[in-house]
Amino acid sequence: MLNEKFIRVLYIDLETEKIRIEQREDLLKYLGGVGVASKLLLENIKSDCKPMDAEQPIVFAIGAGTYVFPVLTKTVAMFVSPLTGELGESYAGARMGMTMLMAGYDALVITGKAKKHSYLSISTNNVTVKDARAIWGLNVSEVGQYIREKERHAGHADGKRSIVYIGPSGENGVSFACATVDTYRHFGRMGLGVCMGSKNLKAISIYGNRSIPILNHKKYIKLYQELYKKCTATEYMAKYHDAGTPENIMPLNKSGGLPTRNMRSGSFEEAGRICGESFAQKNLVRKMSCTGCPVGCIHIGMYRREFDKGHEYEAISVSYDYELIFALGTFLGVANTDAIISLIHEVEELGLDAMSTGVCLGWATEALEKGYITEAETLVKLRFGKAEEYRKAIEYLATGTNSFYQALGKGSRHASSIYGGEDFAMHVAGNEMAGYHTGYGSLIGAAVGARHSHLDNGGYSFDQSMEEFDEDKLVDMIFAEECERCMTNSLIMCLFARKIYDRQTILDALDSIGFELTNEELTEIGRRVYKTKLQIKKALGFQQKGVKLPKRFFETPSMNGMLDEAVAKSMIRKYAAKSDLLLAENSDES
Amino acid sequence: MKVKFYGSALKYTGGMVSVNMDPKCCPDLHALINELAKSFGEDFKQLILGGETWLVLVNAASVKATGGLNTKLKQGDIIEVLPIIGAG
Ligand code: SF4
Hints:
The complex is a heterodimer of chains A (590) and B (88). With 590 residues, chain A is of the alpha+beta class. Chain A has 22 helices and 17 strands. Chain A has helices at 33-44, 96-103, 140-150, 168-171, 192-198, 217-233, 238-241, 249-255, 276-282, 322-328, 337-350, 354-369, 375-378, 387-399, 403-408, 412-419, 440-448, 459-465, 471-488, 503-512, 519-539, 565-584; strands spanning 7-13, 18-24, 58-62, 75-80, 87-92, 107-111, 118-123, 126-131, 161-165, 179-181, 185-187, 201-207, 284-288, 298-308, 312-320, 427-428, 431-432. A 6-stranded mixed β-sheet of chain A has the order 2-1-6-3-4-5, sandwiched between helices. In chain A, strands 8-7-12-9-10-11 form a 6-stranded mixed β-sheet, with helices on both faces. In chain A, α6 (217-233) runs antiparallel to α20, α17 runs antiparallel to α18 and α19 (471-488) packs across α21. Chain B is an alpha+beta fold. Chain B contains 2 helices and 5 strands. Chain B has helices spanning 29-40, 42-50; strands at 2-5, 18-20, 54-58, 61-62, 78-83. Chain B has a 5-stranded mixed β-sheet, with helices on one face. Chain B starts with a strand and ends in a 5-residue tail after the last strand. The chains are: A alpha+beta (590), B alpha+beta (88). Bound molecules: iron/sulfur cluster (SF4).
């Protein structure tokens, strides 16, 4: 907690509606963010229970520098993932970090299942479990509107309140249901939405209005200004603001790393129609920022749709970025910006993770084509490029219309284990792939990464920077970066800003708000946090060595040429040996 | 030979998406960048030379594998300048 020598944790039991607050000095060695959340998850998980068991915890935590410095905006959610069955970790920006800080909580631990459909209202002096029966079953935008109206705080602007909420997918047991934050941000991956749904928890509203002094104001303001300048007046963040991450489409396409049509190919002949420039020209209407960020990378795109006969139109706007365009565009062969926005809108409203949705539908399309499943199961003729069919399928997926869609709603690994086609079900350890087929860095990085995400260790970026492939060196780089990100995610920095926050900047920033740490201690924190995550994964039965990768990864050339399964296996083994060594280290934590 | 620009590279070219260059004055990539800098300015040159944020392809292959700035150029080559992939 800023200016205090403890981490303030709010525990909420939804079943008994009892709350307690603990001020924990022992958690300071985890710094904040993912460090604190990992430790709290480890303390509270029930390793012998299913992911959606009422007793499993959901943990949220803000970082040591959240909202205090530019671009340190994120909140982490940790849980047992219903999609992978092991460690679940997801990040979201918007206002949530700021409101938790202002409400006076570094972390929330939510356990139990509410007796009826509910939402949580949290403020500095009050935590209430409120009736949500009226909004159960409603789409995401309707829920947001309802809670915004209900949770008005007299005399205060809405900007001091943040809302996390789920759509029907989270109620219907879809393993990759997401949780939306303040309309345009999401805890997208790994199924936080369904964890909330299984607790009868439709939404969480957090309101904070404390005023917190900065003790060393002179030092702080000088550093803040330097950082602000770096964010706004240098090249570091420019691309995220300009066309945003959709700018990745063209370089990935040109270099053969753009997963297309269920990754049968690494390039999309229509990429130019759905690249960052095309979205900017046709659909971009404004840019927004998470609270506490001067960059403004959130691109809002709009399209006009006819919702009824008789010239009845409405404007639909959603936030778009590269991953969404990959998952609902290139991966499904959809080459029209309006169509992609309409699919994004559909997943948003129903509360699904767009990436898992697109990748699951890619598998279903190919499985239908090859006869593993029939149209009697898919209910629509799924074909690459046909957005309207995909729109209907998304609805069936969110509502679990039949047993096929219920199985697909448990992820591509699960569905392919029932219907076949495992070789082209594009998940990594149960989590649907990200939009980078760049080489061993991205593939092995996701296989061994704590949450099987490209963001665990940025493997895709080593695929670009490594001059000559060196298996051992790459394993070492991935491991080191995973530890490093455990530290930076304890701050919690938006990963777009990682080049701005070098080690010295982090030390200076922490020092100006009262954390006196050395460079070695930062390294130690990273290792400690990673070790804690590995302990969680082990407790939940996960083994790095046991990861099996779908054949398609070795059949479609990557940005760095064809990948060899034997090399991939060897790298996973080497990485697992390093993880085992870390787990066996006899240090003071956990 | 033709040089094409994509994404935020267009900021440095004043929105120009491609230019034709005479291979005689640009025998390699380094010379080409110097030549382009005459029109697009030092910022453009520094960015490419900095190397961290740009991907340069010659005939669809990354110059990383063909000698970087020393990559030889010839009549008919297509040179593409793209931002590198960044996703956090
Ligand atoms: S760069 Fe974008 S995602 Fe990151 S904090 Fe800023 S607005 Fe949010």
